[in-house]
């Protein structure tokens, strides 16, 4: 601080109210959530016009693996919550473990997603009919968001290991966590729509 | 196209403002009601606004009185006035929807193509193009389909418009109260020749309509002169028959309009040019000059064959 | 945060120090790395205006073709391309961005902030807008100008459109949408967090309310215009079937998605301009706006209702009458808040002591009067039996142009005449300003009024020609003459700009004697905006109770003992709560190249998608990721994410 117009510091109130980063993430989630809501609107709109569901001779999707993946994804939300609590109490080691665990769970989910993307086209593709188009586009939209979330989590992990988060200052971790929870919540809607609904409606 | 224009001028077309059917009449009545209401509101507000701009508020005006005045302005103009206007408008809206003709005494299947119209009748079955005959005083249900993109079917003097959408069938009831020729238009942007996708509704008295229907249901006229015969052969041997159908012959193409009673129509190319010998010749040789972008390719045809072809086509009454 | 010491620091010293801290690097590095909301605002203004002129030229070409029946100025193919690009340019590259332009420039100043909440994201939204505009207009240079209409109804634009033309359109539209979305988030957080202490929500200038409302509308409606063209691009490029009726898709789905965005966007592009008028008219009547709370309620209500009316664009698609009736009522409902807004203006003028007829005021009043005509015709087309006649005719062309030109373009000129002295530091010529107003506005009415009649007598929209003899000739010719008159008015306004630029009549900090905070600093605005961040106690902080104007606001002359922020970083205050309590000091990010590179990398992605080259696309995605990582390196805990 060079000599200049600075003379006396006054007390700066901190920690009151939400930060700009928090608001930014809330607004991002608002618009991304709208995007997914519209995507599901598209799904139900086309579903409501279809004579049968799934269209054509497509079998409803296999449920076992995806159910396990779903469980893992929801578990990752829990581990993320633990991470958040741990850092607030200053238990950096615990936070690191659980954040790494969150990333692991997310990564396993994503590996399962990739495996599914490699396996599914033997049955039907996005070009088969609109059922196929919907399945691939919705599930990959979610997958892409999950990948972004994982990258953000990875950066948070690096920052955590470098000691950048303290009980007083862990905003970055918090908003990354918000995004991760958002991606999980989207799956709460995507999973029943894409995987369960065709079983209910299949002839 | 230039000549087409003058021919169109033959009828006194003033669109929705000259209704010839109950549907269009409802819309026209609504329009005039809304026009006067809108004018009254606009002029009334404008007068108030001009007075507001010209008057001077005294500098010592009571602020509380001003605030009350403001509230009176805003509630009066922003809430009460629209309420009054819209109560009547919405009632008229619902009344208008319910008063539209709904009958199906005659049913026509109308199909939009880039850039022409096909009309199919039943009992007896027949298919024609770009001219829609209907009996006067009758509810005619038009079922709207499309073969390609979205089109919209509109006869301003008879009724509101309805879209032709892939995968769906819409219906519209036409009802003409007077005989006449009414311009029909495509109103959904459908590609390069959206502008030249017109048709005519020909409303005739029921007896005349029956006669027309009978005549149209018959197969095409056989060629009766040598020239017509040569034209007939030219039609079948050139690529014409691949795209156009003439009932009673082997020509059964489905890409272009059916030509069974082609000579009875007033227009070429869905309103692009009048159906006379000169334009027809031009159309056959290169339809792209009259209607750039339409599906009909230019023809290599020698002058004699062309003349014979014209003879034949013009015999298809 | 620091207290100004009256013995050691003169206001000059404070300003000197702030200037050193907040100035961009000189020259080219500064050009590419600036994050200053004012420079970003300048660029938005210039770029949007250039697109306004391009869209205008396209419109004039079409009007020239339509001046006479059976004309051959443009062939049908070229006409349809101009038609598409006129609508696309005006909606995506002008109407929606001119509001971001003035928003960028005015909002931080009007709320007493030193910058937007996310300065770098702000720079990003500009660069993305620019690159998206370049992307769309690149279609001209490869001979693939979009031709499916700006509304791009499927299947004309999917199965029946070959070549790259509609790929340019679909991807370009998604591209611009990124800019709008990023910008909207930025505006919201700026308004929530960056207001000067004491600027409660009920002291917020109305232009800020309207921008806040539209930003939320953008967040909730733009996903539709991201999703729909993306699905279109998938249908076109990847082979999906979302809009293909033969394999379970539905063409009407496109229309639902498009208008779910398309109707709110109309309000998005005219609410901020109405907000400009809310700023301009009180200034020239010398008194606060009447019924502030009503104006706020009307603005927010318009935002809500706008999401319930999209189906009135689809009355002719054969929806069930009950569904359609609901949307008919909702559409009537929109006119309540609009009527409230108009009577707010009327009441303000009614109790004015003195009206100053400056050019800005003329433009503002001209906009109001013209807009009413568009409002009234809008009510008419909400009535279904009439809409079935008027839909897709020139009646609707007239209606929408009245709404958009009187609701956005005329207010834009009012804003130019009002705020340009703040932006540039010199005054625009009043006489030329008034001349351009009369020429433009009379041109507007000659141009669009006859089109109502054309629609009623049966002229459909989007036709490249029409035959003589239908009674359409005179009105079309008049309309074209009006078009040229309108263009002449715009040229005079531009001439005014250049003449005044040469003359440089100094503006001073508050040439109009206005009451809001953007006038509480120098003209042109110093890089730091306010020397001392003001404390707000009133809706019009620069007006005293006696109706005088504060001479030496703290934005220019910080008061001894007042709080100034003059550290080495870009520092500003953040506030919390609806009542804008002091929250703390924010260290804002300084200049950065990353926003530019991120936008460039995004361009590469879209280019790769366009040419269907997976390698380029992957390269682009990697580049976007790399630039974002570079951007956020070391910032994960900072003010931006």
Keywords:
heterotrimer, B: 317 residues, alpha+beta, 5-stranded mixed β-sheet, 9 helices, C: 641 residues, mainly alpha, two-stranded antiparallel ribbon, two-stranded antiparallel sheet, 17 helices, 4 strands, disordered C terminus
Which structural class do the helices and strands of chain C define? mainly alpha
- Largest sheet strand order of chain B: 3-2-1-5-8
In whole angstroms, how far apart are the ends of chain C? 24 Å
Instruction: Classify the beta-strand content of chain B into a percent band.
Output: 15-25%
Helix content of chain C: 55-70%
Q: Return Rg of chain C in Å.
A: 25 Å
Largest beta-sheet characterization of chain C: 2 strands, antiparallel
| Cα-atom radius of gyration of chain B | 27 Å
Would you tell me the overall average pLDDT of chain B?
A: 91
Termini Cα gap of chain B = 23 Å
- As laid out across the biggest beta sheet of chain C, the strand order is 1-2
Number of helices of chain B: 9
Count interface residues per chain for the largest interface. B-C, 93 and 87 residues
Number of helices of chain C: 17
Question: Mean pLDDT score of chain C, rounded?
Answer: 93
- The coarse silhouette of chain C is globular
List the secondary-structure elements of chain B in sequence, H or E: HHHEEEEEEEEEEHHHEEHHH
Protein described:
The complex is a heterotrimer of chains A (203), B (317) and C (641). Chain A has 203 residues and is mostly helical. Helix content of chain A is 72%, strand content 1%. Chain A is built from 5 helices and 1 strand; from the N terminus they run E-H-H-H-H-H. In chain A, helix 3 runs antiparallel to helix 4. Chain B has 317 residues and is α+β, with helices and mostly antiparallel strands. In chain B, strands 3-2-1-5-8 form a 5-stranded mixed β-sheet. A 5-stranded mixed β-sheet of chain B has the order 4-10-9-6-7. In chain B, strands 11-12 form a two-stranded antiparallel ribbon. In chain B, strand 1 (106-113) and strand 2 (116-121) form a beta hairpin. In chain B, helix 2 (22-54) packs antiparallel against helix 3. The longest helix of chain B has 37 residues, at 63-99. Chain C has 641 residues and is mostly helical. Helices cover 63% and strands 3% of the residues of chain C. In chain C, the strands form 2 sheets. In chain C, strands 1-2 form a two-stranded antiparallel sheet. Chain C has a two-stranded antiparallel sheet with strand order 3-4. Chain C is globular, with a radius of gyration of 25 Å. The model of chain C is unreliable at 636-641 (pLDDT under 50). The interface between B and C is large, with 93 and 87 residues.
């Amino acid at each position: 601080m060079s000599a200049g117009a600075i003379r006396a510091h006054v007390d700066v109130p901190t920690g009151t109210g939400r930060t700009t980063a928090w608001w930014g993430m809330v607004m991002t989630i608002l618009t991304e959530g709208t995007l997914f809501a519209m995507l599901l609107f598209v799904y139900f709109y086309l579903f409501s016009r279809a004579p049968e569901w799934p269209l054509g001779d497509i079998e409803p999707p296999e449920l076992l693996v995806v159910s396990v993946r779903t469980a893992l994804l929801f578990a990752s939300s829990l581990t993320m919550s633990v991470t958040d609590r741990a850092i607030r109490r200053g238990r950096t080691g615990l936070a690191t473990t659980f954040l790494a665990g969150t990333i692991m769970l997310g990564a396993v989910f994503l590996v399962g997603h990739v495996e599914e993307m490699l396996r599914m086209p033997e049955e039907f593709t996005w070009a088969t009919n609109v059922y196929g188009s919907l399945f691939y586009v919705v599930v990959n939209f979610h997958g892409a968001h999950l990948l972004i979330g994982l990258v953000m989590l990875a950066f948070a992990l690096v920052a955590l290991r470098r000691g950048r988060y303290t009980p007083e200052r862990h905003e970055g971790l918090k908003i990354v966590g918000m995004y991760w929870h958002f991606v999980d919540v989207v799956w709460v809607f995507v999973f029943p729509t894409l995987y369960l609904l065709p079983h209910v409606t299949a002839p | 196209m230039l000549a087409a224009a003058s021919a169109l001028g033959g009828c006194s077309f003033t669109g929705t403002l000259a209704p010839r059917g109950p549907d269009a009449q409802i819309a026209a009545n609504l329009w005039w009601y809304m026009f006067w209401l809108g004018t009254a509101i606009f002029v009334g507000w404008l007068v108030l606004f001009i007075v507001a701009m010209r008057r001077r508020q005294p500098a010592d005006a009571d602020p509380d009185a001003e605030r009350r005045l403001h509230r009176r302005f805003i509630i009066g103009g922003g809430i009460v006035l629209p309420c009054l206007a819209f109560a009547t408008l919405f009632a008229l809206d619902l009344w208008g929807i319910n008063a539209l003709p709904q009958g199906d005494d005659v049913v026509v299947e109308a199909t939009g193509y880039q850039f022409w119209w096909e009309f199919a009748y039943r009992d007896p079955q027949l298919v024609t193009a770009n001219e829609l005959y209907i009996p006067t005083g009758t509810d005619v249900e038009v079922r709207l389909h499309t073969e390609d993109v979205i089109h919209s079917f509109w006869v301003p003097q008879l009724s509101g418009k309805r879209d032709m959408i892939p995968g769906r069938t819409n219906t519209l009831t036409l009802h003409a109260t007077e005989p006449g020729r009414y311009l029909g238009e495509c109103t959904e942007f459908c590609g390069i020749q959206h502008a030249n996708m017109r048709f005519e509704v020909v409303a005739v008295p029921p007896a005349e309509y029956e006669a027309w229907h009978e005549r149209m249901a018959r197969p095409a006229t056989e060629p009766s002169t040598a020239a017509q015969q040569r034209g007939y052969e030219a039609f079948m041997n050139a690529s014409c028959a691949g795209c156009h159908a003439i009932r009673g012959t082997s020509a059964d193409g489905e890409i272009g309009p059916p030509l069974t009673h082609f000579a009875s129509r007033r227009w070429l190319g869905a309103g692009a040019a009048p159906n006379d010998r000169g334009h027809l010749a031009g159309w056959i040789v290169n339809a792209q000059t009259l209607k750039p972008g339409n599906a009909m390719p230019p023809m290599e045809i020698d002058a004699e064959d062309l003349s014979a072809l014209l003879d034949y086509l013009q015999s298809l009454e | 945060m620091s207290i100004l010491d009256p013995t050691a620091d003169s206001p000059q010293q404070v300003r000197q120090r702030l200037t050193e801290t907040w100035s961009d690097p000189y020259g080219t590095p500064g050009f590419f790395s600036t994050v200053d909301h004012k420079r970003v605002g300048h660029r938005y203004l210039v770029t949007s205006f250039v697109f306004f002129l391009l869209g205008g030229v396209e419109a004039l070409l079409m009007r020239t073709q339509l001046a006479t029946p059976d004309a051959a100025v443009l062939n049908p193919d070229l006409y349809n391309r101009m038609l598409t690009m006129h609508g696309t340019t005006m909606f995506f590259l002008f109407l929606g961005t001119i509001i971001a332009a003035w928003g960028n420039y005015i909002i931080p100043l009007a709320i007493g902030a030193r910058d937007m909440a996310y300065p770098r994201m702000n720079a990003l939204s500009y660069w993305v807008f620019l690159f998206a505009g370049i992307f769309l207009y690149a279609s001209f240079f490869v001979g693939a100008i979009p031709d499916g209409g700006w509304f791009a109804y499927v299947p004309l634009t999917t199965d029946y459109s070959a070549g790259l033309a509609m790929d340019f359109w679909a991807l370009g539209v998604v591209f611009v949408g990124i800019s709008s979305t990023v910008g909207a988030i930025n505006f919201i957080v700026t308004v929530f967090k960056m207001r000067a202490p004491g600027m409660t929500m009920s002291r917020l200038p109305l232009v800020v309310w309207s921008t806040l409302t539209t930003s939320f509308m953008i967040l909730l409606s733009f996903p539709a215009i991201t999703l729909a063209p993306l699905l279109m691009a998938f249908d076109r490029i990847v082979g999906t079937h979302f809009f293909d009726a033969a394999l379970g898709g539905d063409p009407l789905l496109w229309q639902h998605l498009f208008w779910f965005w398309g109707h709110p966007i109309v309000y998005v592009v005219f609410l901020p301009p109405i907000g400009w008028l809310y700023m301009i008219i009180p200034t020239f009547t010398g008194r606060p706006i009447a019924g502030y709370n009503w104006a706020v309620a009307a603005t927010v209500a318009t935002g809500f209702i706008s999401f319930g009316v999209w189906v009135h664009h689809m009355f002719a698609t054969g929806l069930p009458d009950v569904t359609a009736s609901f949307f008919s009522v909702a559409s009537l409902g929109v006119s309540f808040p609009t009527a409230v807004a108009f009577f707010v203006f009327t009441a303000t003028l009614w109790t004015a002591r003195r009206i100053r007829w400056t050019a800005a005021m003329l433009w503002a009043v001209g906009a109001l009067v013209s807009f009413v005509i568009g409002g009234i015709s809008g009510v008419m087309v909400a009535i279904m039996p009439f809409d079935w006649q008027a839909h897709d005719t020139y009646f609707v062309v007239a209606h929408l142009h009245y709404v958009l030109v009187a609701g956005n373009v005329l207010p834009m000129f009012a804003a130019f005449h009002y705020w340009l002295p703040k932006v540039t530091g010199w005054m625009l010529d009043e006489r030329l300003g008034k001349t351009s107003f009369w020429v433009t506005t009379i041109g507007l009415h000659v141009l669009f009024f006859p089109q109502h009649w054309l629609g009623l007598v049966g002229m459909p929209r989007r036709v490249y020609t029409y035959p003589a003899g239908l009674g359409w000739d005179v009105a079309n010719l008049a309309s074209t003459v009006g078009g040229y008159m309108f263009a002449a008015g715009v040229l005079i306004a531009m001439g005014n700009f250049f003449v005044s630029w040469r003359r440089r009549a100094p503006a001073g900090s508050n040439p109009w004697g206005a009451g809001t905070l953007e006038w509480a600093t120098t003209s042109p605005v110093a890089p730091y905006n306010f020397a001392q961040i003001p404390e707000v106690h009133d809706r019009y902080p620069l007006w005293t109770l006696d109706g005088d104007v504060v001479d030496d606001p703290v934005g220019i002359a910080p008061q001894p003992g007042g709080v100034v922020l003059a550290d080495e970083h870009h520092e500003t205050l953040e506030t919390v709560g609806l009542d804008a309590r002091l929250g703390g000091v924010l260290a804002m990010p300084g200049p950065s190249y990353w926003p530019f590179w991120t936008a460039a990398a995004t361009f590469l992605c879209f280019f790769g998608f366009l040419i269907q080259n997976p390698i380029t696309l992957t390269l682009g995605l990697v580049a976007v990721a790399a630039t974002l990582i570079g951007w956020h390196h070391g910032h994960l805990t900072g003010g931006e994410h």
